[in-house]
Amino acid sequence: MSGLLWTDVISMLNGTAVGIFGMLLTAAFCEIVWTKQRKYAFALCMALLLLLQGVVYICLEPVMVELLYPLITHLPLVVVIYLFSKKKVWAFIAVFAAYLCCQLRRWMALLLVALFFDNQVLMQEVTEIVLTIPLLWVIIRFVAPAVASLSRDTIAAQLQFGIVPVLAYAFDYLTQVYSGLFPKGSPVVTEFMFFVCSGAYLMFVLHTSKETKQRFLLEKTQENLNLQITQAVREVQLLRESQNQARIYRHDLRHHLQYIASCIENGNTEHATEYIRGICAEIEAGKVTAYCENEAANLIFSAFAVRAEEQAITLKIHAELGNQLPVSENDLCVLLSNALENALHACQKLKEEGRDSFIEVVTYEKNGKLFVQIENSCLEESVCFSQGVPVTEVQGHGLGVRSICALVERYQGIYTFSVKNNRFTLRISI
Questions:
Q1: What is the C-alpha separation between 262 and 269, in angstroms, rounded?
Q2: Mind listing the pLDDT tens digit of every residue in the chain (430 residues)?
Q3: Which of 55, 243, 293, 391 would you label with 152, given CA atoms 20 to 30 Å apart?
Q4: Where are the domains of the chain?
Q5: Do residues 156 and 91 lie in contact, with contact meaning Cβ atoms separated by under 8 Å?
Q6: How far apart are CA 140 and CA 152, in angstroms?
Q7: pTM (predicted TM-score)
């Protein structure tokens, strides 16, 4: 009796373990924004589902529990996942995919027991329990992000990825649970097909997800580049309009002087003074410093020089650029704007701490090649690199660096990033 009771306890523990395994995997296979409240709510749902399983297990025979398992576990889990993710189709696919992964756990346990424990039923359950946590960690750590990323695809694409788990699920229940169509034999042999199926499926998902991620990243980078080109062109255009306005003022200086003289002759000196100040402000706003012969570069440098001065950041520029460069005007604007924007951002962090900051720009054209070097002060400990490129975990940041890299690669050029002694250096050769 005690032996029977002990077996029942192990069986219930294994049922709980596989339930937790499947529920956590299902949630990990969906891109759910996990707030503290949602975590508590999902934990409560898991507890209720496990309680329902326990009640059914106690009240009914094991055979009936197996028959009703899709209704008492899988279907409620689909509803729960839908409520958290708001994805109808993917909620089903996530449940089926998690079920397929459960076969990995079962077959690995079957193999270990067959090799070392002489196919003991009790050891089978114990081994499954032991395998639960490490296998769960491996799948969530290395596989789940790839599976979850597929939920962003179209419904048609989701169905394509979901067909294998659905068919495996249907085949398992129709041939083994609800009928005896599948021949009985060694469990290791009979379950091997599901192991191969689940393993092959996960490898396929990982490969496909990698390609999808790369394509998505390229599309986002291109989209960002296009946006930045548009912004750069707009900024240059505004600067040109401002410069043209200043030229108009200088051209109409005679008319301005006549008006000012008229105000003075009439004793309205205060109005004359305000008029002069207004003209000076408009001319100064449109002033473009000639750093080099290239007009676009001068416009960009002048715009950032104003921003640096406003923030008390020392900006030194040495430029030797002609009108004929190996890059287009738009690309030059994107390149310089992104690099200087990143440099200003790094200097702002130093200014917030009350420390001095600087930016030094050296750029020139030689033998048909464009060379750019931008150095700026930075907090060395705050700069992280991945494959030689600075990275950040802050949402929305890092686009400028990716844009620079993509642009330079498009011209088959070379870029390097380095940091030493709180000096960040970007070097570009195109």
A1: 10
A2: 444 467 777 878 888 888 899 999 999 988 888 888 889 999 999 999 988 888 887 888 777 877 888 888 889 999 999 999 888 898 999 998 888 888 788 878 877 877 777 656 678 788 888 888 898 898 888 888 888 888 877 888 888 888 888 888 888 788 777 776 665 555 555 566 666 667 777 777 777 766 666 766 666 666 666 656 665 665 666 566 566 655 655 555 555 566 666 667 677 777 767 777 776 665 555 556 788 888 888 888 888 888 888 888 899 999 998 888 888 887 888 888 888 988 998 888 888 887 888 999 999 988 889 999 999 998 877 778 777 788 765 544 456 788 788 888 888 899 999 888 889 999 999 8
A3: 391
A4: 2-223, 252-287, 289-430
A5: no
A6: 18
A7: 0.52
Does domain 289-430 sit in CATH 3.30.565.10? Answer: yes
Tokens of 71: 């209704």
DSSP string, 81-109: HHHHH--HHHHHHHHHHHHHHHHHHHHHH
**Does residue 285 contact residue 238 with C-beta atoms inside 8 Å?**
no
Q: Decide if 158 contacts 150 (C-beta within 8 A).
A: yes
Nearest to 205 by CA among 18, 25, 26, 29: 29
CA 292 to CA 248: how far, in whole Å? 23
